[in-house]
Amino acid sequence: MKLFLRLSGLLAASLLLASCGIFSDKDEELEPKELVDFKPTIKIKRVWSAKVGGEAEFLRVALQPVGDGSRIYAASFDGNVTAFDAQTGRQVWRNKLKSELSAGPGVGEGLVVVAARDGMAMALDSASGAERWRASIDGESLARPLISGNYVVIQTIDNRLLALSIYDGREIWSVEQSTPSLTQRGSASPVLVSGNVIAGFDNGRLSAVDLESGDVVWEAMLAPPTGRSVLDRLADIDGAIASVGQDIYAAGYQGRLAAMASESGQVLWSREISSYVGVAVDWNGVYTTRDDGEIIAMSRRDGTETWRNDDLLRRLPTLPTSFRTTVAVGDLEGYVHFFSNLTGEPVARVKLGGAAISNAPVVIADRLYVQTDSGSIAAYEVVQDRPRRSAPDISDDS
Q1: Whole-angstrom distance, CA of residue 341 vs CA of residue 257
Q2: What is the pTM of this model?
C-alpha cells in the first residue's frame, strides 16, 4: 500500500491531472509490477557515492549530473551546486545558493548554469564555484541549460526559448510558442545540432532555431493534438531529444516517435508511440519508455522494433540510457535496471537508496552516474572479469 501511495503521488506531480479525473477506478487499483528474480550476467560496481543536497521527490525537477572531462557537477533542489572529482568522488567545491533549483546544471565555456523555481538563472565559475552572474528568465525552467559559444540557451515551462549572454546573462534573443490550456509538468532540454537549437514545445511542435540569430529555421508538428476533450488533446514534447550526426530523434506524449533530418525537419520515419520521457540513441538503436512503463528498442536506420520489455510496468521507469552493452533505467524505488541492448533481457540490477529516480542515468566517459530525488549521487562501472591464467605445463626431464 505504501508503494501504491508513492506511485499515485508521483503520477499526480508529473501530470498535474489528479483533479481532472483522468484515471478510472480500475486504473487506480493497478500497482507497480513486482520485480522478478533473475541471474545477473554482468557485474556492476559502485565506484563512489555522495550526497548533493535535499529531497525533491515527486516534484519532477530536471536535475541530472553532467561532466566536463575531469569533474562531475550536480545540483539539488535545496540550492546546492557541487563539483566532484570524476575519478574519486571527492568534493572539489560547493556553492549553497539560497534558491530552490529546478533544472541543471549545464556546463560549458567555463560556466556551470542552473535554473531556479523563482525564474532566475545563475552562472557559476566551473573552476571555483563562485557566482559569476544571475539573470531573470521570468519563469520556471525544467530543462537543462544549453551552453555553446557566447550563449546560454534556456527553455521555460511557458513555452519560451531564450538565449542569454555567457558574459553577463543579458537576453540576446527569444522565441515563444503558444501554450495549450492544459499541459504536463516538464520541458524537453534543447540540444544543438549543426548550429541550430532543437527544441520541443507543449503544443506538440519541434523547432530548429539558429543559435546566432534566434531565427526559426523550421518547425514540424511532431505530436498533433487529437480528440475532443482537453485531456485527449495533450500532445506535449517534454522528454529528451537525441541526435546522431545530422539526424534528430524526439517523441511526444499521445503522439509519435520520429527520426527527422536536422537541416529541414523532414520526417525520415515515425512510429505511433506515446512517451513523456523522450528518446535515447546509440549508433545502432533508438530507445524509449512508453507512458505505461514498457521499454521499447528500435533500429535507428528505419525504426523497426527489435525488442520490448514490460518488466517495469507502472514503476515509472526513466528514459533508457545506453551504457556499454546495456541500457540502464531508474525506477520509483531507487533501483537501476540494466537490460541487454540486443535482446532486452535483464542482465543486472542495483539499488541506490530508497528514493525515486525520476531523471535518466547519465553516461560520462566509461561510467554511469545516477542521481535520486533525495539528492544522492553515485557512479557505477561494469566490472570486467579477467580470465584466469592456467599454470604452464612443466615437463619432467629428469
Answers
A1: 19
A2: 0.87
Residue 57 near residue 374 (C-beta atoms within 8 A): yes
Arithmetic mean of pLDDT, 57-64 = 80
In a domain, 130, yes or no: yes
Tell me the pairing of strands 101-108 and 257-261: unpaired
* Residue 20 one-letter amino acid: C
- In sequence order, what are the residues at sequence separation of 6 or more whose Cβ sits closer than 8 angstroms to the Cβ of residue 384? none
Residue 96 within any structural domain of the chain: yes
Q: Letter for the amino acid at 375? A: G
Q: Give the Cα separation of 217 and 17 in Å (integer).
A: 34
Question: DSSP string covering 234-266, please?
Answer: -----SB-EEETTEEEEE-TTS-EEEEETTT--
Q: Is-contact 53 33, C-beta < 8 A?
A: no
* Cα–Cα distances in angstroms (integers) from residue 351 to residues 39, 288, 330, 333, 357, in the given order: 16, 22, 9, 8, 10
Q: Could you check whether the bond before residue 180 is cis, i.e. omega within 30 degrees of 0?
A: no
Residue 67, in any domain of the structure: yes
Residue 152 within a domain: yes
Q: Largest Cα–Cα distance of the chain, in whole Å?
A: 94
| pLDDT at residue 240 tops 50 | yes
Task: Work out the average pLDDT over 342-371.
Answer: 96
Residue 156 maps to which CATH number?
2.40.128.630
- Identify whether the C-beta of residue 95 lies closer than 8 Å to the C-beta of residue 81: yes
Distance CA 269, CA 249 (A): 10
Separation CA 184–CA 201 (nearest Å): 11
> What is the number of domains present in the chain?
1
Pairing of strands 43-51, 91-96: unpaired
8 Å CB contact between 320 and 329: yes
For residues 255-276, average pLDDT: 90
- Please name every residue paired with 225 in a beta bridge, in sequence order, or none if there are none: none
Cell, residue 259: 527520426
**Strand order across the 171-176 sheet:** 146-148, 151-155, 160-165, 171-176
Q: Which domain holds residue 126?
A: 63-185
